[in-house]
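Quick log. Single chain, no ligands specified.
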Amino acid sequence: MTDADGPSSNAAARTGSPVVMVVAWLWVAVPFLYGLYQLAEKSSKLFE
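-> predicted structure:
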């Protein structure tokens, strides 16, 4: 067994604050959803 296989291998994922996790998800999700919206809006014009 190596150190990476031990119980502390996910320590970085467990020590984060829930607020930081929400902010990080929003930091990624908001631009992604906006891009999907723009894609749907512009691609719908192709099928008119």
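The helical segments are 11-14, 18-44.
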